[in-house]
């Protein structure tokens, strides 16, 4: 800072740019970064596991989200909602958000666990730095340990056998994922829905699952138990006339983007009313013309000379019309009379989806309609919900696509959103198992087993890394400790008892009995996690901690 005088002799204070910034170096920089990371991880720690607490988040516009795990609303999946809604300013905090998001992107589950693990590693790192160990040595030690842990996970993993007819193992694994969510009271049915959905779109030979083919939709109302899997797509629309058929089998669907204007439907001449007795004669006389006849309420036949639209629609064999545009009451009435069910005001995106799923083509002009352009679906039905006027159109067993829809029902929007996120997790777990059917045991069992293996390996390293490797083993214990703590158990006592049991029985399946099921053998409790998910957690957490440890200079604006 310097004091100077301007041309009028007035004093001016000159601030040099550097002076408006604060700077932390060396251990102080490390400590400040670690403190930021640990603070974020502590918030999530209490949410881990089946007994984890929920968080209520209020956004500035007063929208409320309750979540047991971290989700990113904009991505609609696990990872960062809570962190994002907390509006994490700190750059290290943002790294933790990214960490959780990466886990979500790669695996889809374990987003809380990965942040808890990273927080524990940071806490351990701080202790080592205080003891004078260089951060790079700590990072190297963590890297070695993570490789040991990942290899050990491979060794204790089991192959989970399942096939298209025996999906029970997959259901069990999805149930583990769902058991720690708010929706856990319906975990069996939701897990079955998720697995059946994944199996419907999976290519078991190539071990590939395209999750884009699974749409997750929700509608407020009904119970969570009413959530269903639809082998097709649903559209939030109904038939344009209440008297139109509610169910059409083997539907041939005309998908139109041309306006259904009354002129195109209206008869070009006035209606001809003929008493019924003479109708036979009349009809036979006029059969050659394109007039269609209907009996009206008085028993008279009403003749409609057909416009090209009608001829086209019926000639090509359409049994359902889906139109991007609306049509007035008159057109609607005519469609109903023609026994041609129709749906109007269908959005462009939905129209495209219907076209893709049913193998139809979107037709911009009536004249262009041909039988090959019709979409085909085994069943189209309209379903009404409760006493409300809410109706939806189910287009099932579509010709061209294996696309399925998970249709979630729930008491309020918050519940539906949470269920969507939970279903996403379950879908990802099932997909991961199809890609790689190795599993490890949950409830902290895998972490305890890795901790024992890493601890044992530490002795083989004569250098300073040994300390970092031991610290890594301690950090691994933090996951079962958090699970125990969140379940109201004594964390240290429970952990040491389980660890002793694992060593004594040489059984890597012993974990924390969070639900007080009477056994801590996770195999008996059916608490599994995918091997790749667990490995990814350890690798990602180590990676981010190494990244944080490499920062030794923090320059920030002074108001931070
Ligand atoms: P994440 O977002 O990381 O998946 P969760 O809150 O879903 O976090 O908790 C997952 C942890 O809870 C895993 O370590 C899993 O093994 C454990 N877990 C899930 N169900 C049970 C159970 N019934 N008993 C013990 N641990 C469980």
Descriptive account of the structure:
With about 550 residues, this protein is α+β, with helices and mostly antiparallel strands. The protein has 3 domains: about 1-55 and about 85-160 and about 440-510 and about 530-560, GroEL-like equatorial domain (GROEL, domain 1, Orthogonal Bundle), CATH 1.10.560; about 170-230 and about 405-435, GROEL, domain 2; about 235-265 and about 305-400, GroEL, CATH 3.50.7. It contains 17 helices and 26 strands. The longest helix has 23 residues, at about 415-435. It is globular. The two termini are about 20 Å apart. The relative contact order is 0.18. It binds adenosine-5'-diphosphate (ADP). The site of adenosine-5'-diphosphate (ADP) has 27 residues, from helix 4 and helix 6. Adenosine-5'-diphosphate (ADP) binds next to helix 4 and helix 6.
Keywords summarizing the entry:
GroEL; single chain; 26 strands; 17 helices; 43% helix; seven-stranded mixed beta sheet; binds adenosine-5'-diphosphate; 3 domains; alpha+beta; GROEL, domain 1; GROEL, domain 2; 560 residues; globular; three-stranded antiparallel beta sheet
In short:
The chain is of the alpha+beta class. It is built from 17 helices and 26 strands.
Topology, pairings included?
Elements: E1 2-5, E2 11-14, E3 21-25, H1 26-45, E4 55-58, E5 64-67, E6 71-72, E7 77-78, H2 81-85, H3 91-106, H4 111-130, H5 135-156, E8 158-159, H6 168-179, H7 187-201, E9 202-203, E10 208-209, E11 214-220, E12 228-230, E13 232-235, E14 247-256, H8 262-265, E15 272-274, H9 279-286, E16 291-295, E17 301-305, H10 308-315, E18 320-323, H11 329-337, E19 342-343, H12 348-358, E20 362-363, E21 375-384, E22 391-398, E23 404-410, H13 413-435, E24 438-441, H14 445-458, H15 465-486, H16 491-505, E25 528-530, H17 531-549, E26 553-557
Parallel strand pairs: 11-23, 14-18, 14-20, 18-19
Antiparallel strand pairs: 1-2, 3-26, 4-5, 6-7, 8-24, 9-10, 12-23, 13-22, 14-21, 15-17, 16-17, 21-22, 24-25
Bound molecules: adenosine-5'-diphosphate (ADP).
């Amino acid at each position: 800072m310097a004091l100077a005088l301007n041309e009028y002799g007035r004093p001016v204070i000159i601030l040099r740019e550097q002076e408006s910034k604060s700077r932390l170096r060396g251990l102080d920089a490390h400590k400040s970064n670690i403190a930021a990371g640990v603070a974020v991880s502590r918030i999530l720690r209490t949410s881990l596991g089946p007994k984890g607490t929920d968080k209520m988040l209020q956004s500035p516009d007063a929208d409320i989200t309750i979540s047991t795990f971290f989700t990113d609303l904009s991505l609609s999946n696990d990872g960062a909602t809570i962190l994002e809604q907390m509006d994490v300013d700190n750059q290290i905090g943002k790294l933790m958000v990214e960490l959780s998001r990466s886990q979500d992107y790669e695996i889809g589950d374990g987003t809380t666990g990965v942040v808890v693990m990273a927080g524990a590693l940071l806490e351990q790192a701080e202790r080592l730095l205080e003891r004078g160990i260089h951060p790079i040595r700590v990072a190297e030690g963590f890297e070695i340990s993570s490789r040991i842990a990942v290899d050990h996970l491979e060794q204790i993993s089991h192959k989970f056998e399942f096939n298209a007819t025996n999906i029970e193992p997959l259901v069990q694994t999805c149930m583990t994922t769902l058991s720690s969510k708010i929706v856990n009271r319906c975990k069996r049915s939701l897990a079955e829905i998720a697995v059946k959905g994944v199996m419907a779109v999976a290519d078991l030979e190539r071990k590939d699952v395209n999750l884009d083919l699974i749409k997750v939709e929700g509608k407020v109302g009904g119970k969570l138990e009413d959530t269903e899997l639809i082998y097709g797509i649903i559209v939030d629309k109904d038939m344009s006339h209440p008297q139109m058929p509610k169910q059409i089998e083997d539907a041939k669907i005309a998908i139109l983007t041309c306006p259904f204007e009354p002129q195109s439907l209206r008869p070009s001449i006035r209606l001809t009313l003929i008493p019924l007795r003479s109708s036979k004669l009349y009809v036979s006389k006029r059969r050659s013309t394109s007039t269609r006849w209907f009996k009206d309420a008085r028993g008279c036949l009403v003749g409609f000379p057909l416009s090209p639209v009608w001829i086209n629609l019926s000639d090509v064999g359409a049994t359902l019309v889906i139109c991007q545009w609306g049509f007035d009451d008159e057109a609607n009435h005519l469609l109903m009379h023609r026994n041609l069910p129709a749906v109007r005001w269908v959005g462009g995106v939905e129209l495209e989806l219907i076209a893709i799923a049913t193998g139809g083509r979107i037709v911009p002009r009536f004249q262009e309609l041909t039988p090959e352009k019709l979409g085909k679906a085994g069943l189209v039905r309209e379903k009404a919900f409760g006493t409300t006027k809410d109706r939806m159109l189910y287009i099932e067993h579509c010709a061209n696509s294996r696309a399925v829809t998970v249709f979630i029902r729930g008491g309020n929007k918050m519940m539906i959103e949470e269920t969507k996120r939970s279903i996403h997790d379950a879908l990802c777990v099932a997909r991961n198992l199809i890609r790689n059917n190795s599993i490890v045991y949950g409830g902290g069992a895998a972490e305890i087993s890795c901790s024992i293996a890493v601890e044992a390996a530490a002795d083989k390293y004569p250098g300073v890394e040994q300390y970092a490797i031991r610290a890594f083993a301690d950090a691994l214990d933090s996951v079962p400790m958090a699970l125990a703590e969140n379940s109201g158990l004594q964390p240290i006592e429970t952990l040491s008892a389980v660890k002793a049991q694992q060593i004594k029985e040489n059984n890597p399946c012993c974990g924390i009995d969070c639900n007080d099921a009477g056994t801590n053998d996770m195999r008996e409790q059916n608490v599994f996690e995918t091997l790749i998910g667990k490995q990814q957690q350890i690798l990602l957490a180590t990676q981010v901690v190494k990244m944080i440890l490499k920062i030794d200079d923090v320059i920030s604006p002074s108001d931070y």
